[in-house]
Write a structure and sequence with these properties.
With about 170 residues, the protein is α/β, with parallel strands linked by helices. The chain contains five helices and seven strands; from the N terminus they run βαβαββααβββα. The model has no long low-confidence stretch (mean pLDDT about 90). Bound molecules: adenosine-5'-triphosphate (ATP) and magnesium ion.
């Protein structure tokens, strides 16, 4: 999950406030089809949870404020247009723990799955996914890079880029 693997179809942008990251997330949530898997990668405070909040909002989860890092329970489930699963693997010690809570459902199920610290289980991620790398640039600026893995992600990211630029 490093920069070298970034290929065609990548969309990179910089947000200049938390609100902007939320807005970007909402746009993505509005276009994600059921079955999507989003791998969120970035250091502490990069903005993974904030982006996940926006995505959940865009997916129709009524109360975005409910969306917080599920650090202790590993997974939170919200009800949007489809089931939304939000995982935070920061404290994950071994893969068995996520297998126990039903990893297969997150990977193959009809819901949308958002995973913070997805790089911790890189080997076990579905081949088709959207990878999002968030980088801290300054107190209020984040570089956010969306890269598709597999064909469906390419269209989604292209649409996201289109909508984001139209809004700007
Ligand atoms: N442009 C920005 N985008 C996102 N967050 C920002 C931005 N500017 C400032 N912030 C702040 O950075 C913090 C991001 O926190 P968030 O919980 O989303 O990070 P995280 O990547 O989930 O961290 P963790 O690994 O600890 O869960 C928030 O306090 C937010 O207000
Ligand atoms: Mg977080």
């Amino acid at each position: 999950m490093n920069g070298e693997k970034r290929g065609k179809g990548t969309f990179e942008t910089t947000t200049e406030s938390p609100e902007e990251t939320l807005r970007l997330g909402r746009l993505l949530g509005e276009i994600l089809p059921p079955g999507s898997f989003v791998a969120l990668v970035g250091i502490l405070g990069a903005g993974k949870t904030l982006l996940a909040k926006g995505i959940a909002g865009g997916l129709g989860v009524g109360n975005e404020r409910e969306v917080t890092s599920p650090s202790f329970v590993l997974v939170n489930e919200y009800r949007g247009r489809f089931p939304v699963f939000h995982l935070d693997l920061y404290r994950l010690e071994n893969f068995a723990a996520v297998e126990e809570i039903g990893w297969d459902e997150f990977v193959c199920g009809p819901g949308v799955t958002l995973v913070e610290w997805a790089d911790k289980v890189e080997e076990d991620l579905p081949e088709e996914r959207i990878e999002v790398h968030l980088q801290w640039l300054s107190e209020e600026e984040r570089k956010i890079v969306f890269s598709p893995r597999g064909t469906p992600g390419k269209k989604i990211i292209a649409e996201l880029e289109h909508r984001w630029k139209k809004e700007a």
